[in-house]
Structures are given as structure tokens and as C-alpha cells.
Specification:
By secondary structure, the chain is α+β, with helices and mostly antiparallel strands. The protein has 11 helices and 10 strands. The strands form 3 sheets. It has a 4-stranded mixed beta sheet with strand order 1-2-3-4, sandwiched between helices. Strands 7-8-9-10 form a 4-stranded antiparallel beta sheet. It has a two-stranded antiparallel sheet with strand order 5-6.
């Protein structure tokens, strides 16, 4: 099945041993159970000719605790794994390390599938709704999984041609506060190797979302833009095109939330008349092939409009806490974590 099955098996065994050393001994059974269940789930999706019964897999009643989500054309694999309860970071990293090797070996056997790497995200689910995730944004993770699960062959039972049941059962109301905090913080950190660092970076230590927004707007007004004022982000391991794409997705989604529109979770859904100007950026065209100045100017205007819109809907912004009108939760600005407890309301 693999080009070098012995080398892969040895690597997998070594990774298993290393992973088990990372976690508490009493969690070994949980680690093995999760890894085995995920491997069986994805084997059902990726294999068409193996004897599932021989491998101890019931394709009709296999518990589903994982799947792929995100854009259908993404070259990276975004995988979610459902835990019974939130686990400590070393445990999550141990599972992540082991399953990353397993996925690489499984997918390398399928010449029809491109693979760069897998981003594995952990969640917990209650009553069909994501109620915890590593990113501290369960509403976005919930809706991203729910709306994009159907785009991926990895979520099917290959021999039956049907989808495995998605563990996420419904949409929940998006919350602007956490999306704004993460988008604005990410935007600022992208400038850490540019001449705008001194103007922007210190604001990350402010305990006020309004202060962060005001600072960005001041820099924008002084320079006639933010993105338009730089030639490159100078990130050695990340292309400028990838950064611009990430910024476009974040602020297009934030814009939809502010305007009360249905939020889109794939770049393909943004490619239409209303968002045509952003198509080259979202598709990460090389800058030499597009009007870079026009792309950056359009993104600058999008960011500015979002920031102005945010100032109008901030309800509470004091003592390091923020709440946006109509959001259910209050958020810790520095930690980007929910402070109030409550169930997420369905759309």
C-alpha cells in the first residue's frame, strides 16, 4: 500500500512511543482510543479496496469523531477531532504528532491526492454544537465545520459513496467580539517586520479594543492606508500573498458579521460580483500578475470600514473586557477568551 511500508511502520511506531512519553500515564488509554478511532474513520474515507472487516472496522456503525473542513480547494488539510472533554496541551500535541505521521503515510499512498501538511484542531461538542475549541472561538469553528463538511471526500465512506454523519448538527449565532479581537491582533502582528511596527505593535499591550482600533485608524490616516504603505511583510516563512489572503478572509467575514449578513467560510463563496475585487487576493495570485496597488487599496478600505463599524457597536470596553452589542459573551481582550458562560443560540 505504501512505497516503503517498513520505513513508515517504523516511523509510526517511533512517533507513538514519543507521543505516549508526552502525556500522563493514566491518559494512555484515551490517547490510544482517539488515535485508533480517527485512523479507522479516515481509513474508511480514503480506502476503496481494503478489507475493512479484517481491520476491525464496521463501515455502517463506526463512531465518527473527526473530519475535514474548510475550502474545497485548499492544499492544506484542516482536520477536526472531537474530544469527550478539553484535554491539556501536551495531550493534544501528542495526538496531533502521531496522527500527522499517520495521515502523511496514508495520503502518500494515494497519488491522486496533493498533501502538504495537516492542521489538526481539537473541539468538544454538546448537543450537536461545538462548545470548546483550542482557538477560543467555538462559534466560528462550529459554523465552519457545519457549512464546509460536505465539500470533502475525506468525510465519505468510500465503498458506500455516502457521507459519514457530521458531528456538528446546526449553525450557531456568530459573535463579533472574538472575531474582531483575533482579526485585529493578527493584522497588527503581520506588521512586526515592517516600518509600521513601532506605530502599531505596542497597542497589543493595551487593554482596550477601542484603543487598538483608534491607533490603527490614526496610522491609516497618517499614511494614506496601512497595507498600501508597505512593500513586503518580510516574513521569511510566509509569502506576502498568503498573508494578504488571510487578511482578506478575516476582514471579509468580520464585515459580514457587522452588516448582519450570512457569514461565508470558504474563499470560493466570496468569489462573485460583490467581492470580485478581492478574487486575486483570495486565490493568492502572484503579485506580478495582478494590480498589487489596487488589491492593497481595496483591502485597506475594507479594513477601515470594518474598524469604523466596530466603533459603533462596542457596548462594554473597560478593565480589559469587551462586549459587542448583540453578542452573548463578554471577552477578555488580552487572552481572547470567553468570560461569561452560556449556551450558543441557534441562528
Amino acid at each position: 500500500m505504501y512505497k516503503d511500508i517498513e520505513a513508515f511502520t517504523a516511523k509510526l511506531r517511533e512517533t507513538m512511543e514519543d507521543s505516549l512519553e508526552m502525556i500522563n500515564e493514566e491518559d494512555n488509554f484515551t490517547f490510544t482510543g482517539i488515535s485508533d478511532t480517527v485512523a479507522k474513520n479516515l481509513t474508511v474515507s480514503l480506502s476503496e479496496s481494503i478489507d475493512f472487516e479484517m481491520h476491525g472496522i464496521d463501515v455502517y456503525s463506526q463512531d465518527n469523531i473527526c473530519g475535514q473542513f474548510g475550502s474545497a480547494t485548499s492544499t492544506d488539510l484542516d482536520i477536526f477531532i472531537v474530544l469527550d472533554t478539553p484535554m491539556y496541551k501536551k495531550f493534544r500535541d501528542a495526538v496531533r504528532n502521531y496522527l500527522s505521521v499517520w495521515l502523511e503515510g496514508m495520503i502518500s499512498a494515494r497519488s491522486s491526492m496533493d498533501y502538504t501538511h495537516a492542521d489538526i484542531h481539537f473541539v468538544t461538542i454538546s448537543d450537536g454544537v461545538v462548545d470548546w475549541t483550542e482557538s477560543n472561538n467555538p462559534t466560528e469553528m462550529n459554523n465552519a465545520i457545519y457549512t464546509t463538511y460536505k465539500y470533502h471526500q475525506m468525510n465519505t465512506v468510500s465503498v458506500l459513496g455516502d457521507y459519514r454523519d457530521c458531528p456538528v448538527k446546526r449553525l450557531v449565532r456568530p459573535e463579533i467580539g472574538i472575531k474582531a479581537l483575533k482579526s485585529i491582533r493578527s493584522l497588527i502582528t503581520y506588521f512586526s517586520r515592517t516600518h509600521l511596527k513601532e506605530d502599531l505593535y505596542g497597542v497589543l499591550f493595551d487593554d482596550s479594543l477601542k484603543s487598538r482600533i483608534d491607533t490603527i485608524i490614526q496610522v491609516y490616516d497618517s499614511n494614506g492606508g496601512i497595507l498600501s504603505d508597505i512593500d513586503t511583510f518580510n516574513k521569511p516563512n510566509t509569502k506576502d500573498e498568503d498573508i494578504l489572503k488571510s487578511i482578506a478572509m478575516m476582514f471579509l467575514q468580520l464585515s459580514q458579521m457587522i452588516e448582519g449578513k450570512e457569514v461565508v467560510y470558504t474563499k470560493e463563496k466570496f468569489i462573485g460580483d460583490d467581492y470580485a475585487i478581492f478574487m486575486p487576493t483570495l486565490l493568492r495570485f502572484e503579485t506580478e500578475t495582478v494590480n498589487e496597488r489596487m488589491q492593497k487599496a481595496s483591502l485597506d478600505q475594507l479594513i477601515y470600514d470594518c474598524l469604523e463599524g466596530m466603533l459603533e457597536i462596542i457596548d462594554i470596553d473597560e478593565n480589559g473586557y469587551v462586549k459587542i452589542k448583540d453578542d452573548r459573551h463578554i471577552y477578555d481582550i488580552r487572552k481572547e477568551k470567553i468570560l461569561s458562560i452560556g449556551e450558543y443560540l441557534c441562528v
